[in-house]
Amino acid sequence: MSNTSISKVFFIGLQTKENEDQMRLKIQRLFDHAEFASFLEKGDLTAVKVHFGERGNSTFIPPWFIRAIVKKIRETGANPFITDTNTLYRGKRRNAVDHIQTAILHGFTFATADAPVIIADGLTGKNYVDIPINQKHFKTVKIGADLVHADAVIVSSHFKGHMMAGFGGAIKNIGMGCASVQGKKEQHNVRPHLPEPEKCQGCGICKTHCPADAIEIIDGKYTVNEELCVGCGDCIRYCPEKALEFNWESDLSDFTEKMTEYAYGFWKIHQNKIGFINFVLNVTPECDCYNLSEIPIVQDIGILASNDPVALDKACYDLVNQQPGNRASRMENNFNPGEDKFLGVHKETKGNIQFLYGEQLGMGTTHYELIEIK
Ligand code: SF4
Ligand code: SF4
After folding, report:
1. Is residue 1 situated within a structural domain?
2. What is the CATH number of the domain that holds 257?
3. pLDDT tens digits for 183-199?
4. Is the distance from CB of 188 to CB of 230 less than 8 angstroms?
5. 230 and 122 in one domain?
6. Mean pLDDT over residues 268-287, rounded?
């Protein structure tokens, strides 16, 4: 795709809470306008890429929204399944057994979503395919095998903040979200450090929150086992003394570029048979991997769809930033319309690398036409 081309992004506003039937109809209208049926053929094994939400989270995209997407896929004669990959960190989605149980507890059963749940990188996350990309950080990327083998993909993403990526939308959902466990590890190659040891009070709160058992308190100070650390950043987030840091400049730029290269690898396989839907609802400061859901940083905006993940994320990012920030949320600054809300809550991040580097890689364009559907 040329950088000067313009991609269509379809948008349905949702300033009011709709009932279930109205929501389903809106999702289905968006699916029709984006012409996702045009690339679906009878019998296509069609992955609906979702995030089932960590246990305790309540702002993941619910199964009854996904059922609306499944219905449209079924109308084409294609054969849908609902999927995600296992996590790198300890939690309730680390292997396929726990992951499917979490999905069921969050309502994703055949009876509710009308399609089977398949964990795309297998029982323990080792079932992946190496996809060549020959880019700056990676020569190949390790994608969950069943997501590679799918004939077509509809990517359903919750658009919200993220501590390291700035925000998470379509690009993050296919970059981190379609990577196998090893692929996630390659992207998270960042480690926290304690630049001023006197700030650490040895309270151990970081250790309690570490999902990888990588922290010991030795001689009253934070010590990280770099082999075990998965680079999630939770210790930084929860330290009450703000004693821990990444190398914000280099680590987070590299992290975001690596994630975008993974997204490119996935997009490259399916580029002619892939559609993206972003739900800009409950725009929480953190992603649905958290076992809680915090107060949103802006009001609900709506649902957007496109064939172009770069244009789609850029449109969502712009719509969020046009809103006033929610002063009841964890935001610290950038409350005015026009200011970057994600920097208001994660001031060191570089979220825009996702769409700028994505455009450079040829995955889409930041130039879009926003088409509002009534
Ligand atoms: S939470 Fe912060 S202050 Fe407490 S032990 Fe960990 S690094 Fe030190
Ligand atoms: S970044 Fe911190 S919380 Fe996350 S795995 Fe590493 S040490 Fe543990």
Report:
1. no
2. 3.40.50.11440
3. 998 998 888 999 999 99
4. yes
5. no
6. 96
Same domain, residue pair 135 and 202: no
Are 166 and 42 found together in one domain? Answer: yes
Ligand 2 binding pocket mutation candidate from 216, 234, 246 (most atoms within 8 A of CB): 234
Q: Whose CA is nearest to atom 4 of ligand 2?
A: 232
* Contacts (Cβ under 8 Å, ≥6 apart) of 264: 133, 135, 358, 361, 362, 363
148 lines ligand 1 (CB under 6 A): no
Q: Is 206 in the pocket of ligand 1 (CB under 6 A)?
A: yes
Q: Is residue 213 located within the same domain as residue 106?
A: no
Specify the residue with its C-alpha closest to ligand 1, atom 4. 203
What pLDDT, in 10s, does the model give residues 51-76? 999 999 999 999 999 999 999 999 99
Domain count of the chain? 2
Domain that holds residue 89: 7-188+249-372
Q: Structure tokens of 171? A: 């690009």
